[in-house]
């Protein structure tokens, strides 16, 4: 391009003052930095989420506020080399309790008066938070799936919530028309003991008209993003209880119902007591989804416990049966629905001289007298097929090789 052509184009380029006047009406946060990375302009959209006045921003390095999340800081390098970037993630950290995230794009604007890089910034903090919470929810789901009993499930649930999501966390299950506390979690053991005493002094009423009772009745979450002392004073009228509640230091509260098979079985209570830490809609969505995991986890733990109890009961019954079967002077054996042997009592081993189930099972036809095998080969399959008992007189060879007559009686046992 010739110098005349360049000069012709430059005379139509807006200077920075005109451009910045336009950006004042931009709905997207806009900053401008010079070739040294110093902020020379900021529009009004940026100020609220940075939480600073314009005078506190202009004249400062961009990178004292915004940091490139890439480990090699490649996007910072591009900006300093006057290269343009598009939708790159930066982290905004200005000393607040909450880190904010932005997407940043840039355009370099050169005029005879100097060169500035204009940065167009979109706040994606809520999107990143939802992304993090759903990722955490997936991790929680995997962790809870490993719980095999109610106690371990409740312990894991509490560990997942405090302190990562809330400062206080409780689970109450409704039994016999009252709340039964299942979980009370806080990082400080002393505060847990204090809270248990508070619950003892002021037990929650499931038939009340505030808090968890309302959630239980309506099935709708209770959500107070910002708890004020006026709110607490309006609900708690007893002076001693009011003093105790203030010790909790509630900043924000979420109460959600816990469901099992379309039935509300209890409530989960999430409390933030950290100054400046307030729950928002993303947190509410997480709490509702997590409550679903709680209900599912407790149901799975219950079913697993029932299965383990059933197995334990069966084992005890089997042990008792074998004890009795080995104690009587008769030979007893059992078979499955297919007619195959599943158990021989001790009298069989003593009589035949065998030492293991598999050994005896493999020899049982050999120790039956040859003249009795043909009848047994017909009658036994018929009894199995018909599901009916029978009696046979048979000779079985003793361990010394002598055959002895036996009356074999077969009975049928059907489950249910």
N-end to C-end Cα span? 95 Å
- By DSSP, the count of extended strands is 15
**Bulk shape:** elongated
Work out the helix count.
15
SSE topology string: HHEEHHEHEEEHHEEHHEHHEEHEEHHHEE
The profile of the biggest β sheet is: 6 strands, antiparallel
Content-based structural category: alpha+beta
- Model regions low in confidence, pLDDT < 50 over at least 5 residues: 5-10
Spatial order of the strands forming the largest sheet: 2-1-6-5-4-3
Mean pLDDT: 91
Q: How much β-strand is present in the residues? A: 15-25%
Helix content: 40-55%
Task: Please tell me how large the radius of gyration is.
Answer: 38 Å
Any key phrases for this structure?
single chain, alpha+beta, six-stranded antiparallel β-sheet, five-stranded antiparallel β-sheet
List the helices and strands and how they pair.
Layout: H1 3-10, H2 16-23, E1 29-33, E2 39-42, H3 46-50, H4 54-57, E3 66-68, H5 74-80, E4 88-92, E5 100-111, E6 114-123, H6 125-145, H7 150-161, E7 168-175, E8 178-185, H8 189-201, H9 212-218, E9 222-224, H10 229-235, H11 239-248, E10 252-260, E11 263-272, H12 281-327, E12 333-335, E13 341-344, H13 346-352, H14 357-367, H15 370-386, E14 390-397, E15 403-410
Antiparallel strand pairs: 1-2, 1-6, 3-4, 4-5, 5-6, 7-8, 7-11, 9-10, 10-11, 12-13, 14-15
């Amino acid at each position: 391009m010739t110098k005349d052509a360049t000069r012709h184009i430059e005379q139509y380029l807006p200077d920075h003052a005109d451009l910045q006047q336009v950006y004042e009406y931009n709905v997207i946060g806009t900053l401008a930095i010079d070739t040294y990375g110093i902020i020379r302009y900021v529009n009004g959209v940026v100020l609220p989420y940075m939480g600073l006045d314009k005078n506190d921003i202009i004249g400062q390095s961009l990178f004292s506020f915004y940091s490139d999340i890439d480990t090699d800081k490649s996007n910072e390098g591009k900006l300093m080399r006057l290269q343009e970037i598009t939708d790159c993630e930066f982290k905004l950290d200005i000393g607040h309790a909450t880190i904010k995230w932005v997407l940043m794009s840039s355009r370099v604007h050169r005029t005879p008066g100097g060169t500035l890089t204009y940065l167009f910034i979109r706040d994606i903090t809520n999107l990143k938070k939802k992304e993090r919470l759903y990722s955490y929810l997936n991790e929680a789901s995997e962790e809870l799936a490993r719980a095999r009993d109610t106690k371990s499930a409740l312990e894991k649930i509490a560990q997942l919530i405090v302190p990562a999501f809330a400062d206080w966390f409780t689970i109450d299950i409704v039994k016999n028309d009252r709340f039964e506390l299942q979980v009370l979690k806080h990082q400080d053991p002393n505060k847990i003991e204090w809270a248990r005493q508070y619950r003892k002094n002021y037990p929650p009423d499931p038939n009340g008209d505030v808090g968890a009772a309302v959630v239980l009745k309506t099935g709708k979450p209770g959500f107070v993003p910002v708890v004020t002392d006026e709110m607490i004073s309006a609900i708690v009228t007893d002076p001693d209880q009011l003093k105790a509640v203030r010790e909790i230091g509630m900043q924000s509260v979420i109460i959600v119902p816990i469901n099992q098979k379309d039935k509300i079985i209890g409530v989960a209570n999430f409390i933030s007591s950290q100054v400046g830490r307030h729950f928002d809609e993303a947190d509410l969505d997480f709490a509702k989804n997590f409550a679903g995991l709680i209900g599912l986890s407790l149901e799975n733990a219950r079913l697993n416990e029932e299965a383990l109890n059933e197995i334990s009961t069966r084992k005890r019954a089997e042990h008792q049966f074998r004890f009795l079967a080995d104690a009587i002077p008769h030979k007893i054996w059992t078979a499955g629905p297919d007619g195959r042997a599943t158990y021989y009592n001790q009298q069989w081993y003593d009589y035949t001289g065998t030492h293991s189930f598999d050994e005896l099972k493999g020899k049982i036809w050999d120790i039956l007298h040859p003249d009795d095998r043909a009848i047994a080969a017909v009658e036994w399959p018929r009894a199995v097929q018909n599901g009916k008992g029978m009696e046979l007189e048979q000779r079985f060879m003793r361990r010394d090789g002598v055959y002895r007559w036996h009356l074999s009686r077969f009975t049928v046992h059907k489950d249910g």
